Amino acid sequence: MDKESFKENAHKTKDQVKQNIKKAKKTKLILSILKLTLLIGIVIAVPVYIYFYQQDFINQFKSFNDVIAYLEQYKFESVFIYIGIQILQIVISIIPGQAFQFAAGYLYGFFPGLLFSVIGAFLGTTLSFYLARLLGKSALHLFFGEEQMTYFIERLNSKRAYMIVFLLYLIPGLPKDVVSYAAGVSEMKFKAFMAFSMAGRIFGMSGSLLIGALYFHHHYIGMGIIAVVAVVAFVLCIIYRKNINRYLDKFYDRVTR
Question: Which of 43, 121, 153, 175 is the most exposed place for a label (fewest CB within 10 A)?
Fold first, then answer.
């Protein structure tokens, strides 16, 4: 092979490599867009469809008594239905999860209700976390660029980010189920995220379940006391936030070791 032929072949090979790289990038972009579209469908489109076109399904859960009546008709199977609804509520965020926790305390008692709630919450949070990680992470890296994503990732992987996760799950009434999707597309470690989110979630669950259990026994004064305790605990958390931060920092070091 003469020198000219060698140069021509080398040039062709170089062009072919460039074309292959372009094709690979284009394929990766298309796959990332398809994944992100699927994730958006799960998080937004499905809840919107249920809300506007499946009103009969939503209307079954309008009140505390409606939820109890819905679960009672399934008897023993209601345990598995309750766990399934807990999972579904976290993944698509359309069913009132707290109302079902009240009902679980009423129907099953505090400790069994807490066990079923924790199982459902763990499975639902795990599913939504990994759905976001599998479907959304690569798209965000492509759309926003590696440098900007690295900037946000460093902050999302800090001790303070996990403390915010804990507080979001701790405070009742906050829209928290989307947090697991945000954590999934970040570089948050699953073990640490789950530890902090479940630690915060269990406190809120316990209050809802206890109210349901007390309602079953007509202990209305006890329900009022729990409400007062919750408010006092919230105020104390604000007053002693520095001490809580130190404890959470130690907890973070332990679970990420």
Answer: 175
